[in-house]
Amino acid sequence: MAEQSLRIGRTAMMLALTEEEELINLNENVVWCVGKVGTMDSQKIVAAIETAAKQNGVINGALYREVHSLYHAILEAIQGVTRGHLQLGGVLRTVGLRFAVVRGKPYKNANEGDWIAVALYGTIGAPIKGSEHESAGLGINHI
């Protein structure tokens, strides 16, 4: 198991769960970004997270392997939020999510390379105010 200080998934979840990033003691060896997305379209979740990760230097958008790794981590996190179903608007569900993307080396052996974690936290439910409930998801993938 990765050391406590190297747990990128834990760090991502902490960032997604708090509004005050400066209160989190981040390992200096990670690169991260946070953002928010509200939508009835899962494609918009992917687009928002991918855009934030590129703009904040978490991934290099010109390298397919980095974009591809992020994509799979995002899909895994969305499955957590949607309980295994990627549909939202088609089944009249909407989300309001805070997201965090963390990139780092979760293993002592640097040859294991970089990994990426995507955490989502927020609400999901019918598109009627007050009809939503909390939900969370976490996806981790190697780069």
Explain how this protein is built:
- It is a single chain.
- By secondary structure, the chain is α+β, with helices and mostly antiparallel strands.
- The protein has a single domain (4-19, 27-142), classed as 3-Layer(aba) Sandwich (Hut operon positive regulatory protein HutP).
- The protein contains 3 helices and 4 strands; from the N terminus they run αβααβββ.
- It has helices spanning 8-17, 42-55, 64-81; strands spanning 31-39, 94-104, 115-125, 132-142.
- The chain has a 4-stranded antiparallel sheet with strand order 1-2-3-4, with helices on both faces.
- α2 packs across α3 (64-81).
- The protein is globular, with a radius of gyration of 15 Å.
- 32% of the residues are buried.
